[in-house]
Amino acid sequence: MTSLEIKNINKHYGAVQALHDVSLSINKGEFVTLLGPSGSGKTTVLKILAGFEPVTSGQVLMEGRDVTALPPEKRNFGLVFQGYALFPHMSVYDNIAYPLRVRRQSKAMIDERVLAALDLVQLRKFANRRPQELSGGQQQRVALARALVFKPDVLLLDEPMSALDKQLRHDLQEELREIHRSLGTTFINVTHDQEEAMHMSDRIAIMDHGQIKQYDTAHQLYRRPASRFVAEFVGKSNVFQGEVRGSGSSARFYSASFEMPLADAQTGASTVMIRPEDAEITTTAPNDGRITLPVQVISSTYSGDRALYTLLQSDGADFIAYAPARSGVFPDGTDIFVSFASQDVIALA
């Protein structure tokens, strides 16, 4: 069931158009992430959802009800800011209680809800501390508890983990996923971190220049990107430009490096992609029907069980591929081969 719908939103700042006909449908209880580079429009969408920014045109619907013109305080949306936005003069307990006191809830109700929220984020023993006495991760948990304590219909997360170190980010991602599963509240997250988006989200909206380029599951975005931008933004990729000759089942793709069947592809200029994990590095050329390219090692990045190689093709273009690294890595300058199956090649629009 659709919980929240954005319909044909346009947003102008003077002569600059920040959003172009943005539409998005979010199901009740779904965890959706808006992912894109800086300036892509994702934070503008979040501000419009929160009621902090008016739209130039379009609608925001909550369970079929038009909330486009509703002020923030009447939307029942929780918001977690990038910078936490905690009150430094208040205790953790009072920070979390604040939204309930503004809503004039009873003392008994406030105490019950705040203690439950503290338990949810595992901070009950810190209830009487001030924010400045907590770590960054703990402060973010307080901000999360405050945003959830009044039981919002939707929780909006504005890059909540960007200020945390890698390990803290990973820990908070796990906790956030567990909280989402336990509450069933609709979560909408904004980030530029691909790993974070793919790790936590049911669906991801890829944004660029104020437009949604693709809206799908992490798996579909990675394995079936709708465009070169999505392919290169989500994960690592090797992109080949060329042309398709022939038609129907006889169509073939030709690039400077290789040719291969590409059934039913449209004749003319074409772009295809291969993910680095779908290629295999060998010291001799295999004879098993796969596409094989002679390459030279430019550099390698060792990560324990495997290494990521940057390889130089004969036409001067780079190719990246993973290989097991239990026995070490190939030295720079080594001549080797990289192979991949035609069925692992992804055609891009």
Automatic annotation (TrEMBL):
NCBIfam families: potA. It holds the Pfam family ABC_tran. Belongs to the ABC transporter superfamily. Spermidine/putrescine importer (TC 3.A.1.11.1) family. One of its GO terms (cellular component) is ATP-binding cassette (ABC) transporter complex. Part of the ABC transporter complex PotABCD involved in spermidine/putrescine import. Responsible for energy coupling to the transport system. This is Spermidine/putrescine import ATP-binding protein PotA. Keywords: ATP-binding, Cell membrane, Membrane, Nucleotide-binding, Translocase, Transport. It comes from Mycoplana dimorpha.
